Amino acid sequence: MKFRQSGLFLLAAFILIGAIACKSTPPAEEPPPPVEEVIVQNPDMLAPDQASLNNLNSAVNRTEAARKLVQDFDGPTYFPADWGAAETLYGTAVNGRRTATVRDVRESLSRYNAAAAAYEALAEKTIPRYADVLEKEVMAAREGAIDAGAAYLAPEFLIGTDEYALSAWDMYEAKDYYKAREAGLLVRDAYDALAVGVEAYKIRLEIQDRDFVYYDQANIAAADDIALSALEDYENHEIASADSKAHDVRARYEQSLAKAKESYAADCAAAANAERQRALDIRANIASRQEFEAADAVFNQGVAASRSRSFDQASSLYIQSRTMFASVVAITQEKRRIAEEALRAAERKLIESDEEAQRVELIIEGGSR
C-alpha cells in the first residue's frame, strides 16, 4: 500500500516538474498575419467624372460666346468699365482652369460661371445700345437718300429698302442679333447707295435737259450701261457692288457734265465774240459808245469767269453780252438808218432849194425883160 502511494507521488512529481519546465521554456510563436492599412481619401481630391468635365466645357463655351457677343457689338467701346471687370473675371477663369481633381473642376466651373454672368449682363446693355446707334445711322442714311431726291426720283427703290428695314427689325425682336445686324448694316448701306444713285441720275437729267450729250457721247453711253448694272445689283441686294458702281457712274456723269459746261461756255463765248465783232465792224463802239461799253463789260466778266472755271456763270454772262451786242448792233444800225434818211432829206432839201432858186431866178430874169 505504501509502495502504491509512493508511486503515485513520484508520478505527480514528474508531471509537476514537466509543467514547470514548460513554463520556463515557452514554444516559439508564429508571426501574426500582416495588417492591411485602410486609407480614407478626400472626395474633393478624386479625379473628376466625365459629367463634371462636360459641365465645365459648357461653362467655357457659354463664357466665350457671351464675350464674343459683347465684342462683336462694340460693348468694350460703350461700357469700358464693365468690360474691364468682366475681362478680369475672364482672365482669372482662364489662368485658373484646372481639371485634375473634383475640387479643381468645381472651382474652375465657378470662375467661368462668374465671367459668363458678367459678359451676359454686359450684353444685355450692349445690344440695345448697338441697335440704337445703328438705327440712327440707318435713319440718317435714309434722310440722305430722301434729301437727294429718292422719294420722287426713285420711290420704288426707297419703298423696297424701307420694307427690308422692317424685316431687320423683326430679326432684332426675335433676338437673332447677328442676322439683324447684318440686315441693318445692309439697309444703311443701301440707303447710302440709293442717295449716290439718285445724285448720279440728277446729273444725267441735267445733261439731257441741257442738250449736253453730244459733248461727251462715248463716256455718257458707258456710264449709262454701268448705271443699269448698278440697278440690277441693288434689286438683288448686292449693295456693295451697287454702291461701287453708283459712285463710278456719278463720277463719270460729273466728268461729262463738267466737260460739257466748259465746251458750252466756249461756244457761248464764240457766239458773243462774233456779235461783238459785228458791232465793231459797224463802228458801234463809236456810234453807240455807251451801249457798246456796257456790253463789253459783261463780256469781259464772262472771260474772267471762264478763267476761274466758273463755266455756268461764264455761259450766262456770254449769253447776256451776246444779247447786248446784238442790241448795240440794232441800235447802231437804227442810228445809221436815221442818219442816212436825214442826209437824204437834207439832200432833197438842197435839191429843192436849188430848184426854187432857179425858179426865182427865172422869174426875176423874165420880169426884167
Low-confidence stretches: 1-24
Report helical residue fraction.
over 70%
Number of domains: 3
> Measured on Cα atoms, how large is the radius of gyration?
56 Å
Number of strands: 0
Order of helices and strands: HHHHHHHHHHHHH
Envelope shape: rod-shaped
Describe the structure.
This protein folds into three domains: 48-125; 132-258, no CATH class; 263-355. The N and C termini lie far apart (259 Å). Helix 8 (177-209) runs antiparallel to helix 9 and helix 12 (289-307) runs antiparallel to helix 13 (311-368). The chain has helices at 2-24, 50-72, 75-78, 80-95, 102-148, 150-153, 155-173, 177-209, 217-235, 239-281, 284-287, 289-307, 311-368. The chain is built from 13 helices and no strands. The longest helix is centred in the C-terminal third of the chain and has 58 residues, at 311-368. Residues 1-24 have low confidence and may be disordered. The protein is 85% helix and 0% strand. With 369 residues, it is mainly alpha-helical.
